[in-house]
Specification:
This protein has three domains: 181 residues, no CATH class; 81 residues, no CATH class; 148 residues, Glutaredoxin (3-Layer(aba) Sandwich). It has 17 helices and eight strands. Strands 1-8-7-4-5-6-2-3 form an eight-stranded mixed β-sheet, covered by helices on one side. The longest helix is centred in the middle third of the chain and has 26 residues. It is globular, with a radius of gyration of 24 Å.
């Protein structure tokens, strides 16, 4: 699943890559230093040493310097030094780059549920600044094609308005939040926006007395199997109001049953025929060995994930729900691609905060090759999250990567488990 931050960063990098000058490869090393360093003063030193050592020109390399300044600004935000944060935001030359970093900052505060009043100030600055330059030709970098610039301006509106809407909602300003949620989704197909956006939009519609509009959106998403758990709950509430509890249950159950056959038809085409699941033995977080070979006779679902992977974390509520519905299935959550010596403590910390997933195994890197994770390599994991469904005979039947919505993942896994049981 994409996040607002991922989407915005993609747009931002594309804009920055439009700069005409090529910078030495070590620029990325300096940028990495700043993004990983917690001390803002050290980041300021890295910023100016990078400009000096790499001979970054204030005109030809303006975009790259903007990125460094933006990251320095974020490091001050993390320390709640708003004066220095705003100072370095103000030093960014390109207005698009300014709005990008303002938006990243407001989204970070929203995610942490920290200083939401200041987050609202930053989000408003973001949309006000964006609206001030989006139609101004001078805001476009000279070497960036105008067609691409116009396209990016349209794309950028979505994360800017969406983050502002979510912050306003968090601050209990639903009426204003709905206006910006509608701006974010203007002329967009609900199937092509983030699940979280529809969560917020439909909830705001209901809060502002537009239940029928929300109901139609929720019903459409449910009929194609792309609802979140929050959307399903809201749809049930609205349906019960319309029909009563008994009729609502029958009606919603019929929607679920209509989805299942289409999933089954599509997934049968993707089923692996005769691929043995590589055996492995990993330690769980209590230090006990868990071997796949001991699971023969049961359907096993492997979930390859990492604490730093936003789509992995976003999929966890759905995984928690479906694992609770299938106690007969073994769900093993394989934490992989966790770099650094404190990997296990990071995993434990996440699970302590979230309470899930407790059945986690740690795919530690090879001592000879620290960037190679044995189980991930054996299962040819190229991206996470990745779900692998293994039948009772130890054969891989399905691999499902990525994450779009709770309901889609649950319907997909529900059908995969059903098919695997029959093999």
């Amino acid at each position: 699943m994409k996040t607002i931050k991922n989407l915005l960063w993609t747009i931002f990098i594309c804009i920055s890559c439009g700069a005409k000058a090529q910078v030495k490869p070590s620029f990325s090393d300096r940028l990495k230093l700043i993004t990983e360093e917690q001390n803002p003063l050290k980041n300021v030193a890295t910023l100016y040493s990078a400009i000096r050592d790499l001979k970054l020109d204030t005109v030809d390399n303006a975009e790259n310097i903007d990125v460094l300044k933006g990251e320095v600004a974020l490091s001050y935000l993390r320390k709640s030094n708003d004066t220095e944060f705003e100072k370095y935001i103000g030093l960014i030359k390109n207005k698009f780059n300014q709005t990008s970093y303002l938006n990243m900052a407001s989204e970070r505060l929203l995610k942490d549920r920290s200083r939401l009043n200041y987050a609202e100030v930053l989000a408003k600055k973001t949309v006000d600044l964006y609206e001030s330059y989006k139609d101004q030709p001078l805001a476009r970098p000279a070497t960036f094609p105008i067609e691409d610039w116009n396209r990016f301006m349209v794309m950028a509106a979505y994360p800017y308005y969406q983050v502002y809407a979510e912050i306003l909602r968090a601050n209990k300003k639903d009426k204003q939040a709905l206006l910006y949620a509608e701006k974010a989704l203007l002329n967009k197909d609900p199937q092509n926006v983030l699940q979280s956006s529809l969560d917020v939009y439909t909830a705001l519609l209901v809060s502002q007395g537009q239940q029928e509009k929300a109901y139609q959106i929720l019903l459409k998403q449910a009929s194609i199997g792309k609802s979140s758990l929050e959307m399903k709950a809201l749809l049930r509430t609205l349906t019960v109001r319309k029909m009563g509890n008994k009729k609502a249950s029958v009606f919603l159950d019929s929607i679920e049953k209509n989805i299942s056959p289409s999933y089954k038809t599509e997934l049968l085409k993707k089923m692996h025929t005769d691929t043995s699941a590589p055996d492995f033995t990993l330690l769980n977080l209590e230090g006990k060995k868990v071997s796949l070979s001991r699971m023969i006779g049961k359907v096993v679902v492997l979930d390859f994930w990492a604490t730093w992977c936003a789509p992995c974390i976003a999929s966890m509520p759905a995984m928690k729900k479906i694992s609770s519905l299938h106690p007969e299935v073994v769900f093993l959550f394989v934490a992989t691609q966790e770099q650094g010596k404190d990997a296990v403590s990071r995993i434990k910390s996440y699970i302590e905060k979230s309470g899930f997933p407790k059945d986690t195994l740690v795919d530690s890197p090879s001592s000879e090759q620290p960037i190679q994770f044995p189980v991930s390599t054996a299962y040819k994991v190229t991206a996470i999250p990745l779900k692998v469904v293994i039948d009772p005979k130890g054969k891989i039947r399905f691999k499902a990567g990525g994450f779009e919505s709770d309901t889609e993942l649950m319907n997909e896994l529900e059908t995969m488990i059903y098919i695997a049981k029959k093999q």
